[in-house]
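Before a colleague's protein record goes any further, I have to sign it off. What it holds is a sequence and that sequence's fold in token form. My question to you is simply how this chain folds and whether the tokens agree. Thanks in advance; the entry in question is below:
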Amino acid sequence: MDLMCSSRNVIVLVLVIAGVASAREWIDRAWKDDVIYFVMTDRFHDGDPENNRPPESDPGLYDPAQKDINLYHGGDFRGLEKALERGYFSDLGISAIWITPPVRNAWMSLHDLGGSKSGYHGYWAQDFLDIDPHLTSRKSLGGEPYEAGREGRLQHYKDLIALAHKHDIKIVQDIVCNHIGPIFYYDLDGNGRHDGKKGEWTPPYRSDGSYRDFIRWADEPKWNVGKLRGPALFQSADVYWAKGFSGDSLGKSDGEERRCDFLSLRAFNTSPDAEHFDRLVDAFVEIYHFYIDELGVDGLRIDTVKHVHKSFWDAFATRMRERLGPESEKVLMFGEVFGNSIGDINFYTSSKNGNGRCLDGLLNFQFMWAVRDVLRHKDRGDAGKLKHFVDRMDREVKGSSRYAAKEMRLNTVNFIGNHDGINRFLVNGVDERNHALALGAMLTFEGIPCIYYGSELAVRDTRHGVGGDSETGRFTLFDNGGQRRFDARKGNADFKKVAELIRLRRKMPDLVDGDVRVFPLEGARIEDGVLAYRRGSALVVLNAGTEGRRFSLPAARLVYSNGLVDRMKIVEKTEIPGKTLQVYDVE
């Protein structure tokens, strides 16, 4: 890697990879037409067992039984490549795969939630311009050897992206600009070593002052923990807040959430008043532009957005689009504002003055919570929360005078479960029919639907129930024991239902483009669990209750019911059974 300074004194990162050209071919499809599949790469499929214990790594960080969620399970690029080749994603109808951060990570943190953990998830960057050795193979899928080291690892990532593109599938890379991994500690006792002391990895948050003078770069090769690689800027203590850990950071909104470490993750100082602000923005633009322009990444999912100053995102989004030029319209940048309000969609998708664009969209936590409030119960029988969500979107987003309200809605990413504490929708105590209804709602609402890996097979997290947060849904889907192999998808009823809904979404453009409008039905009440909503000529009727309900419709064609496409018959009066979803074509 060459480091040089431009006339603006900006660090420019140049990587030369054998066989990698700067030009790329784009998949010419609007993001609103896509269905995203979110996969934790380490937890999908172990396609290459040879990379499970990289050279010099602590062998105890890998669990060959794939049971301990705090250790590596072996999932890798080869596992995704094999699924692509077998048509797993194409048969389901997936058109974009969002992968967890692939960059080279710290492999171990002594002190995290619940104790020590490995960095299998990818959010603990150690080198932003290298790929983690746990993910890559020594040979390509065709058997050709990769060059040893960074260039070979980057080439494998490029080959994965190219294979996805061959199947008309985009790749979304999860990115982090908020923090690095547990690469340095605070040498509070001045003895020059960390000694494993919790206080030197997660000292309490200091509202006044910092621990910057105590920063020491760790040196633990077996954990891939040492001085951060990459831009010299990142290796300066001055670029970090170094204020220590705040356990309340996820719920804070007073600025502390932007200044604190989260456990042993070291937060960058992204304040616009910082002397290094422009250099920090430009360094991250260069890093992620490289993945887009050189390797072929199609979109960016941005982690921990609210923990970074809004001015940083305004600058990052603007400069990234300038760097990409006209092709920037083909790149989706959507962010995670944990627990966001609907108002946050306006805030983070609009530039500072409200007249331009910042991010393209956010993960829609409010949609997720509304769906869960209606359907993550055995016999809720009231669809009012979903109606309330639609009304709030009408009021707070559709009526916004800020950046292009329709684009905001269509680029918002809907989900019902994820890898964080929110966990899977389908846990102990949740009816599988309600899970199917939740997926149906997600695939027929405004916004880009995002399926959490395993949801298409209705795989239940049996280690957790409805109450409280948990990460137990981070299990391996296609395990080493031979369970749930790719071909099993063809006979899986839940897989077929999801695939059918995705095909219907593509057959009926209004299910992609149309505004959601609550549609009153004579004889069917929201408090009984029935919610009907129009999207242009498409009418969706969801019955969350256990009882069937009769209602009248104008002349309409029933095109989907209970997971099967009907005979497009004309109906005027009909009945929708309990725990089901139907779609009609209405003039």
Remarks:
- The chain is about 25% helix and 20% strand.
